[in-house]
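Replying to the earlier thread about multi-chain prediction with a worked example.

Input:
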Amino acid sequence: SYVLTQPPSVSVAPGKTARITCGKNNIESQSVHWYQQKPGQAPVLVINYDSDRPSGIPERFSGSNSGNTATLTISRVEAGDEADYYCQVWDSGSDHVVFGGGTKLTVL
Amino acid sequence: EVQLLESEGGLVQPGGSLRLSCAASGFTFSHYAMSWVRQAPGKGLEWVSTVSAGDSSTYYADSVKGRFTISRDNSKSTLYLQMNSLRAEDTAVYYCAKGNGDYSYYYHMDVWGQGTTVTVSS
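Result:
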């Protein structure tokens, strides 16, 4: 199967906007989902179907998917947003779930 | 409230076996595909296996195919992962996760268990 490419790390100051990318050829043809994982905790779904927010997820979290890149955007970043973030798709060719390598978000 | 409670993992010798279970509550278990996802120490998430909702079709990552078996008991709302021929590289936290529906194009995992640690070492 293929790899979803994420930057290993992203740093942002509090109150600013963080953008975490997930790359793959023609990823726009797939539905992308995003998870947040804080240290020692299980992952939490923060964006599904490219841009929808599950119940309870702040409006500061948004997503987009176009061309070869899907993007998770976190506006007005808070210290509590510091975590690892993973993108995920379902691969119809192999019937496999595929995760990105993960991005560590650091709030400066 | 939707809850997933994994059984205790443990320390297993290389070549050994272990069965994980995941007790589900708060939703109609039989209606949803269920997955196992693992995370090796200091590493990212790795999908392991999924069992579908309807006909209980099973799907495996190449790294575990032929060694692991996923199954479900809808009467008990419980998911299982039988792990055989364990290797050091299977050492990880194993998460049980509820799918959003059946296993297809839009599949993702909307509820996760707390995870259970499996250590393969002599």
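Chain B has a mean pLDDT of 97.

Feel free to reuse this layout for your own posts.
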